Amino acid sequence: MADAALSLDPGLVQRFVEIVGDRHALRAAEDIAPYLAEPRGLWHGHSPLVLRPGSVEEVSRIMGLATETRTPVVPQGGNTGLVGAQVPDEGGGQVVLSLSRLNRIREIDLLSNTVTVEAGVILQTLQEAAANADRLFPLSLAAQGSCQIGGNLSSNAGGTNVLAYGNARDLCLGVEVVLPTGEVFDDLRKLKKDNTGYDLKNLFIGAEGTLGIITAAVLKLFPKPKGREVAFVGLPSAEAALSLFGLASDRAGGALTAFELIGRRPYDYTLLHAAGAVRPLTSDWNWYVLMEISSGRSAEDARGLIEDILGAALEAELAGDAVIAASLGQAEALWNFREVLPEAQKAEGASIKHDISVPIASIPTFIEEADAAVELVSPGARPVCFGHMGDGNLHYNISRPADGDDAAFLAQYRIVNDAVHKVVRGLHGSISAEHGIGQLKRDELIATAPPVAIDLMRRVKAAFDPAGIMNPGKVI
Amino acid sequence: MADAALSLDPGLVQRFVEIVGDRHALRAAEDIAPYLAEPRGLWHGHSPLVLRPGSVEEVSRIMGLATETRTPVVPQGGNTGLVGAQVPDEGGGQVVLSLSRLNRIREIDLLSNTVTVEAGVILQTLQEAAANADRLFPLSLAAQGSCQIGGNLSSNAGGTNVLAYGNARDLCLGVEVVLPTGEVFDDLRKLKKDNTGYDLKNLFIGAEGTLGIITAAVLKLFPKPKGREVAFVGLPSAEAALSLFGLASDRAGGALTAFELIGRRPYDYTLLHAAGAVRPLTSDWNWYVLMEISSGRSAEDARGLIEDILGAALEAELAGDAVIAASLGQAEALWNFREVLPEAQKAEGASIKHDISVPIASIPTFIEEADAAVELVSPGARPVCFGHMGDGNLHYNISRPADGDDAAFLAQYRIVNDAVHKVVRGLHGSISAEHGIGQLKRDELIATAPPVAIDLMRRVKAAFDPAGIMNPGKVI
């Protein structure tokens, strides 16, 4: 750390400190440490300085000074990202800018169904504020207790509610962004329709802080569903799950709010390793689906819909068995079963992860081809497949062979990734459906995306951040 | 025309002609004429050459030659745009590139619910192809019989179905774009989730052909509604219409597929001037709403929903009177009443038009303030207000005073625009909700948008079209 600290001039550090005040400029190693490592421990960066500005104006002044002095800045929200976008590099010359103190909900507009919120607001806090106003803010994901809205937008977060409500991008009507120069781009609009020039908003969303810093946003709110039903279904095949999805979409339309696919392995591992996990179905199946129906009309309506769908699915032998949660507690237990899958998989040893999407119709083909491709490059490795099937998005994570060695298996990370991603590309899919690019997939993106796309992205980056100080080394 | 033709070197013209073949390179004044004027006659450009390429490869070669020779190119679809984006300038040195011959529907994927379509496909042709495949393509607007999908995307078209299904941007999953250099950016994906780098797709959508030429797109399809009901409602005030919208949204959610506001003047003018228009309600009201409910479940379900909403609205005295169409024919007659409003207004003399949006909650305030602002700058002028209230989007068109003079009134175009747009800006609205910027609003956009936004748009333009040959003089 001593060496790293030297890479920022003490006089410059002092100028940054003066902008936010001594209390909010972290310089001691033990204070800075939590901002340098991310949850999975894949990246560990260095930095002599973490700034915690308390206003948009302070963010603006920080970036103005950064531009003047060509100091690289790494914006950080709740530090829950999975691709290393929020972690500084190891050089020790990058300043971390934490948005945590910009945590005000500026306005809830019940008539326009919008909320104006600062970047540092924790997702769960926003969900609760919406609920208290008798509204739903639908974005929902595993890290919601600590991730922040600014990070959700910068990574275009997905999660379990995308099927009916869209991802972070779809939920955002307007943004406020501090540009690398310190200028503030105020586009905090509540409009559903606005065709006045280029769509700048969507450039900043999903840019992982490489084009500017999102400091606030206008987000959509929705009516709270009046009825919600959760079912757990056992199915003979992934093809049957695809047919069930078609049937459920057709009957429920926008009321189908979740359709999560779970393979037999993650199901079994959860029963084996997750403390307190309750077996959802008495019989065993090759595939399972967690399905949720939310009705804007009534509890009875939701119940009627889900019974109707499951009845038709059982009759058509798409579903082999099914259970509908009989209480709120049971519904939560079923969702909990879905949410602990990644944790339960850990007990089976090292794993190689993927966050892919393909056209929904290609899901069964993807599973078949990817399983074969993995077996070829890593015999005995165990594909653990689950994810947001309704969005075409699977977390296809490979556990090492049952009797294998963690380190030897992880040495194959790149080979296994390449094999799976080759199948993805063959099906015109995406190698990062919802987690983003960050540091993790930057080289692969550049190597495998069409050169025209990479060239256009580089032109955007150069146009918005000509000095290259905005989260350098990420995305592109 | 002779002078104009001289501004392109004959040898260069010949090189362009050779790319598409003699038949598809229009050079005679009478062949070119339909491409130079737009429907309302506000702009009339000059050009010595209209190219009608028959493949993406030909579009690519045209742009390659245009870049080599710095020849400006104006892409054109169905030539129905309302802001002059598709019309060349008067200099005679711009080549018009018509996408009409790129008119194949490449694929309909019923499992993924997508259609891959070329830019020159006419909107209504696509609607019909979707219907024949038992699907809905929801984009719907007055010009649908002649406008083309490429133009719809390039202008991010709106229309009457945005409320439930979104605008053209929301309906698009992937694009194929020929860049100014002739390179092809192939991003024809069917994915709901894809976080691999910057969102380039949304830059091209709504850019009015100033960044590249959209040659094909992947669009979303939806299940055909199983029941549809249309009602016409009379209301005492715009505030009552806002409350009715809240009530209908709450009860119907995504099944509320249209909520169109109609003022008393356009209602009366339609009864006066539109041949065959049938009076929807026996009593007269200050405001009217055309409301549509589409059910994915059944005809009975749609009927039950709309009766439930209207019953509650009448009881709460939000609605004064209401009629539900009793047949498909009656439903079409009510929709027709809405669609002929702009035409009926013409009989009342010259009008000054606006295509604005504000947060939905601000609609009544907008109407009150805009009426007052117009009366101040143009006493006796008659605001004719109607539009897509559910999207916050009104076509607020001012007819000249009843006993006024057309030319004298139109001389006030700018003054009246300024007065109305000042109210829009005060309510954080948009001066172009769905028609775009083109030539019509370019100067005003540049003069009134935040300088930071204009600067960012100029950087995007320079990054994508450094030679400035891509539809110059439009948007920015």
Short description:
The structure is a homodimer of 476-residue chains. Chain A has helices spanning 2-6, 10-20, 29-32, 56-69, 123-132, 149-154, 162-165, 201-204, 238-252, 264-273, 299-315, 328-339, 341-346, 363-377, 406-410, 413-426, 442-448, 451-464, and strands at 25-26, 50-51, 73-76, 95-98, 105-109, 114-118, 135-136, 172-178, 184-187, 213-220, 222-223, 227-235, 256-263, 287-295, 321-324, 351-352, 355-357, 382-388, 393-399.
Which helices and strands appear, and what pairs or packs with what?
The structure is a homodimer of 476-residue chains.
Chain A: H1 2-6, H2 10-20, E1 25-26, H3 29-32, E2 50-51, H4 56-69, E3 73-76, E4 95-98, E5 105-109, E6 114-118, H5 123-132, E7 135-136, H6 149-154, H7 162-165, E8 172-178, E9 184-187, H8 201-204, E10 213-220, E11 222-223, E12 227-235, H9 238-252, E13 256-263, H10 264-273, E14 287-295, H11 299-315, E15 321-324, H12 328-339, H13 341-346, E16 351-352, E17 355-357, H14 363-377, E18 382-388, E19 393-399, H15 406-410, H16 413-426, H17 442-448, H18 451-464
Helix pairs in contact in A: 2-4, 9-11, 14-16
List keywords for this structure.
homodimer, 476 residues, alpha+beta, Uridine Diphospho-n-acetylenolpyruvylglucosamine Reductase, domain 2, Uridine Diphospho-n-acetylenolpyruvylglucosamine Reductase, domain 3, Alpha-Beta Plaits, 4 domains, eight-stranded antiparallel beta sheet, five-stranded antiparallel beta sheet, 20% strand, globular
